[in-house]
Amino acid sequence: FGENEIEILFAANYGAHTFSLLASPNVSRLTKYKTNYRDDYSDGMFQVDQNSNKVFSITKTSDPIKVFERGNAESFSDLITNIKDIKFFDYNPNSKLLATIASNGLRIIDTEKRTEVFSKIIGKDLPFIDRALDMAPNSNAILYATDEVGAAKDVRDRLQYFDFASGQEKWAKNGRYSALYHIKNGQQILVANNTSGNMEILDPETGNVLRSFPLNFNGSVLESALAPDEKHIIFSGYNTDVFVFEIASGRLVNSFTNKDFQYSPGTFVSNTVVSVSESGAIKFYDILTSKEVLRMYLFQDGGWITYTPEGYFEGSPSAWDKVAF
Predict the structure, then answer these.
(1) What number of CA atoms fall less than 13 Å from residue 302's CA on the CB side?
(2) Which of 130, 102, 78 is nearest to 237 (CA)?
């Protein structure tokens, strides 16, 4: 996109109805896609290729994984057959590989050739919430967390770093981990160690802790989102505050109470603004000021409108009648 352009993807009815809105100073365009889901329960979750106009829709049922092009309403197609109950996924825009993990296994898919290039039986439980899978940007390594139950019924949660090209585990660490991210172009790994209650910066070669800082969540495992510039990470959860940490210093730079974040920390649309879907609207919040900066509504007739707290608004012609002047 251009410097002042942004495109927002969103869905309704468990992903069955898919839309995108392209906004720029010169044009606004809403696209309603003709989807090819088998039914209304495929629950497609989006993974965007930032280096192209492709979007992958990761289904949670046996419905095939989908691929479509942003702005092309007729572009939905099946990418590859699917396995049920995918819990986490990640995409490497450099290699064009898509990773998915479910209770029955880890899978690596070449999205260009639409073929599976690796699979591995996990045979372990996976965390219920938050980001428990992340691909290295410049290698064949993949980081994932499991909740392993041993023969003596003791729970042994683990963080594992695995090379899927060689089929070898590089290292593993015991503990309950979440919020897994490669940062600094893969030179470091950022994780939440929920056993110790710390955020940790790891060496990807050894798994050793380079630096850590306290999270103070009182044992809770919260959902997370990492800012595009990797300067901040946000955490939220059900009946908890929203926490914003500065990664370089480890400081808690903001915390606030907002029920719009109780099911998701949102998706970053800029380095400091996240979008959350709540109360029939898409709301945009500045994580450093805690303030809502924009709200968007989409109507059943395909009309849409956005407005700011200051009273500025933009929308489709069919939505103007819904605005009270």
Answers:
(1) 6
(2) 130
